[in-house]
Sequence to fold (226 residues):
Amino acid sequence: MKKVLILAAHPDDEVLGCGGILSKYQGSGVEFKIVFIGEGSSCRYTELDSKESKDAINFRNACAIKALDSLGVQNFVFHNLPCGRFDQIPIIEINKIIEKEITSFSPDTLFTHSVFDANNDHKIVFHSTIMATRPGAKNSVSKLYSFEVLSSSEWNFQSPFVANYFESLSEQDVENKWKALEIYESETKEFPFPRSRLGIKTQSMSRGMQAGCSFAEAFYLVRELK
Fold:
């Protein structure tokens, strides 16, 4: 794992899914780039182009920049597709965004959403990623993972997230993940809401127990080429 591309549907998904490994590998020489396919706020407003909606989008993007800076990530891009409306965009357009990002960055490892998430934007990003990284597409990706997102992955009660790959974390990594998420003021609440300090720590401990360590971040290995 030398060059890692993280494809997130909305700002905060990158921290929820990969904040632990972003902390763990900070300063290690692993190069990360975060691609935000959509903004995460306009779905809460009746009018997509209202001042309130635009202000919320700008605020959330600013939170993302600050959160990533706290984890040592400076390479990111916002495509700002409309939140909750990815299904209204021809999927080939999303494919092209992802293909272009893969071509320009040449990652060996890619993390994105799970096909089983309760959020439909997440599912669409997964499907687009599968198409963009198909083996015949002559891309650089040798490892493809899905990450889990609290308040989405576990809320598909018929097919909740199943992990088969774990990254052990230190307690400081877990704290750093929370500190980064906390920057997204509009996206966190007090426990028992999943996106809370105790929610993040509980998830990390639960995944750690599964893997045989104190704390872990969990993923699903979709495919690997050696």
Q: What stands out?
A: The helical segments are 13-24, 51-70, 91-105, 120-132, 171-182, 197-211. The mean pLDDT is 95. DSSP finds six helices and seven strands in the chain.
